[in-house]
Amino acid sequence: MKSPNEEKIKLWGGRFTSVTASSVEAFTASIDVDARLYRHDIAGSIAHAKMLARQGIISARDARKIVRGLKAIEREIESGKFAFSPADEDIHMNIERRLTEKIGAAGGKLHTARSRNDQVALDTRLFLREEVRLIIQSLQSLGRELARAARRHLDVIMPGYTHLQRAQPVLFAHHLLAYFEMFERDRERFASCLERINVLPLGAGALAGTTFPIDRNYVAKLLDFPRVAKNSIDAVSDRDFILEFLSASAILFVHLSRLAEELILWSSHEFGFVELPDRYCTGSSMMPQKKNPDVPELIRGKSGRVFGHLHALLTTMKGLPLAYNRDLQEDKTPLFDTVDTVKASVAIVRELMGELKVRKDKMLAAARDGFMNATDLADYLVHRGLPFRTAHAISGKIVQHCIDRGCRIEELPLTELRRFSAKIERNVYNYLSAESVVGRHRSFGGTARSNVLRRLKQLRI
Ligand code: ARG
Predict the structure, then answer these.
(1) Distance 121 CA to ligand 1 centre (A)
(2) Residues with CB under 6 A from ligand 1
(3) Do residues 137 and 274 share a domain?
(4) Known active-site residue 443
(5) Stated pTM of the model
(6) Phi/psi of residue 228, nearest 5 degrees
(7) Greater confidence, 91 or 279?
(8) Which positions ≥6 away from 146 have C-beta within 8 Å?
């Protein structure tokens, strides 16, 4: 007869003489968090069972039972019928417990030549590899959306800024494509991180490998891992692949939040460069006139969360002695929340960019103000033989004169301009228009329309 307490003895409970304190059970359980690894856990276990049978470590019959049982459990979980129990700590033991319930003694053979330490590392890698592939795709769609917006607004000129002071006129499309380049680098970072996620840790056992004649390459083949971890101690204690993912996500959020900040500024009355579609804004409970850019604000806000997750895991990892330590269980909350936050944020920014209304006239008007052609006036004089420093000084004096008179450079009559330099001629007016200023910035990577168009063609947009 089983005593009532024996019912509660853990899968690992052999050497224990009393049941776990309920406070400890609650404190150590991770099932609420890691249940979402169930598919990966089952896929990993199926591959492991097949390998055990192939190597003659368990019978083919037992392996078939295990595989069938695991598939049935997957269906139970998917249909919401599976009863997760914190007493079984985590997803790995919840599934194993249920497997034995379903298929009897054969279930107890699945964990041969395996530890939860290599199992959880495997599950996390399987999970993240899937998610990173999706994130790479969503970054590609965001990039395409930006490039399409650039194409739609190819003729829009806006003020380019440095120090948030009007600096030189640029194409709005060029500005958008600057973000394209950032997200392209993000995509590359995730793709590179994927190479190091895609390494099979299973077979490392608890830390030392195993005495059973396992075939790790076969498991790698079944699960489509191009590489097998070379050191068992490293395999169970390495979380670099998560740190890399979190770093890539943090840098992505630097970019997302800079774009968000610009959308917030641009949609303000003070700038008025863009209008966010009503569907993407919310109102104020008190001020009837308000239309708030909550989506970009939340993107900007969420960057704090994502940076925090990177910091949290770096701190968890720092100074951990080899190999596995329970601390590592704390990797999942930051990982999962980052995955969810990145996916939701990239998707909504892509939507928003597709529906952005651009106030072409407002941008152009702003681009004509602020003496942003002063550099071009200096360049004009350089083309007429003056050293750049002299030309810079002359152009600066003209700007000062215009500030006093309250007019633009191109509004000064020629006679007045020529008082500053006899080199100035009638063609200066055409030279100073925002359109011709932009069009002349043809150096590689510059804002000229011809450059932007070439880049868009390269991107097949
Ligand atoms: N839930 C654990 C984790 O997420 C699984 C590994 C537990 N291993 C152990 N020896 N307690 O890290």
Answers:
(1) 9
(2) 30, 34, 90, 116-117, 120, 324, 326, 328-329
(3) yes
(4) no
(5) 0.94
(6) -115, 135
(7) 91
(8) 176, 177, 179, 180, 183, 353
